Amino acid sequence: MREPLLLLTLLSHRLVANDTIKALRSGKGMIEYNPACLEGLSDPELEEKIKIETVRLLLRHPYRRPPQNDPAFSLIASNITLNEFYAFKELPYRASDYWEDPGFRKQNFEFYYRELKGLGSDSDSGEDAEEAALWDDDDYMDQKMKGMVSQAALNKTWGSLPGELVETLVASLRPAVDYRKILRGFRAMVLSGEKVLTRTKQSRRYGLLYLGRKNQFTTRLLIGVDVSGSISGAELDLFYSAMNRFFYYGVNTLELLQFDTLIQGEPVLMRKARKAIEVTGRGGTSFQPLFNYFSENHKNYDGLIVFTDGFAPIPQLAPAIARKTLWICNSKANYERHCGWMGKLGRCCWIE
């Protein structure tokens, strides 16, 4: 093992013999191996097997279980991710085996897992599921792997690891953005209301002789959805679910406006939007028409939410408009690409 970081990763886990598995698997602070299977391997073949598991551990795949976890899909998604960032010779499953679109290259583990689940086929490989049998959420080991990557970044002890893999490992150290916290903060900022008279509440000063007052929310939000074809139906469903959940209380009206290079149609109420939405698939996107519309009608709305993959020219907007804007990317990878400029033009997060 020539890479110092991979050697340290290997030494940080207990080696446990298990003659019931195929060759190697990792998780729960262990690397299990089948002695009989490894005996017949040449030194380069054995080194690659160990390298696969140590890179997998550094990326923390065995310690970050996706929701409603399917072990076989988890293993396939992990292998695809490893093959995208390291040229393994014998590791099965590559992005090109499932998708021709180059947009599926160089994505993260969670992205591939979600897309595999979205293909609609059942995972029927018991062998793949067995290789991921030790995988589970483990905060201790997750933080331990992060610590090793942090030390490697500090001391520049990457060895001969490819540059793209190093960038991916360093990017994984960034604090996770809790989109729930971002949405709550945005909601609190844009809430508006007015006091109205009511017979159901007595006046504090004059008692039952006079009508009481209550606060009535009047908040109206405009939601711009990129329909250029870069966002899938499953991502739209997840977005709608989050909007309905976090903006149910305190928001009087949610209006949705579709856009690609131009505004598509008129705003529609959120509850009718799922049936009215039409992904055009033209490929082009421009944010400027959306922000022009919002600027012209800003008196009618308290805030703007933009759901997009972020691939479009950066729009020009006034600081007052930026303060009312929330950008939501359709994946963590796209968020990391665009958060630099989005953060200067409002708040930003991702949902996946």
UniProtKB/TrEMBL annotation:
Annotated protein name in UniProt: Uncharacterized protein
Name of a matching Pfam family: DUF2201
Domain Putative metallopeptidase: 8-134
Domain VWA-like: 222-336
InterPro entries: Put_metallopeptidase_dom, VWA-like_dom, vWFA_dom_sf
Domain of life: Bacteria
Lineage: Bacteria, Pseudomonadati, Spirochaetota, Spirochaetia, Spirochaetales
